[in-house]
């Protein structure tokens, strides 16, 4: 689907919204909630939100950047169409004023099957891209997934299981 088709979908959705607002004067709010979506409205919405659609992919990328740059939890996005697997490479430290600082060096989507080998490969690529020597890495904070344990082992990075961190 090209941009022209997307514009048609978008125009049809806007027209449906205008029609819905017009009907608001004729129907009560409860009647509107109970009203069944037409087949055409449903199909148009699904076409515009298809994850293979160019605009959808662009929006997914922007959402990923927002999550990474704002250090948001991955479950920030719950709706279908934005469900992507992300791997981020974040560095933490303290500055000269002893204030905690952190930077997201890179956030990539994992479209392939999640394996320890793939995650280790992506980690090494990011590490090399930023010229971060392995001996400078103190630990990898990871979840409990076996592929993450394997990635840490392959990359020869000490790892910390996120659930095992206790703040006293």
From TrEMBL:
Stated name of the protein: Uncharacterized protein
Originating organism: Euphydryas editha (Edith's checkerspot)
């Amino acid at each position: 689907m090209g941009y022209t088709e997307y514009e048609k979908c978008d125009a049809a959705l806007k027209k449906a919204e205008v029609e819905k607002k017009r009907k608001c004067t004729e129907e009560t709010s409860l009647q509107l909630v109970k009203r069944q979506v037409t087949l055409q409205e449903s199909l148009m919405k699904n076409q515009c939100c298809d994850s293979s659609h160019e605009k959808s992919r662009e929006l997914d990328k922007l959402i990923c950047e927002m999550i990474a740059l704002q250090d948001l939890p991955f479950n920030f996005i719950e709706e279908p169409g934005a469900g992507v697997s992300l791997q981020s490479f974040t560095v933490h430290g303290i500055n000269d004023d002893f204030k905690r600082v952190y930077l997201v060096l890179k956030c990539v989507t994992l479209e392939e099957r999640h394996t320890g080998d793939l995650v280790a490969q992506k980690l090494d690529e990011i590490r090399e891209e930023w010229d971060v020597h392995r001996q400078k890495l103190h630990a990898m904070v990871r979840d409990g997934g076996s592929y993450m344990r394997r990635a840490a082992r392959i990359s020869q990075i000490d790892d910390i299981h996120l659930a095992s961190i206790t703040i006293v």
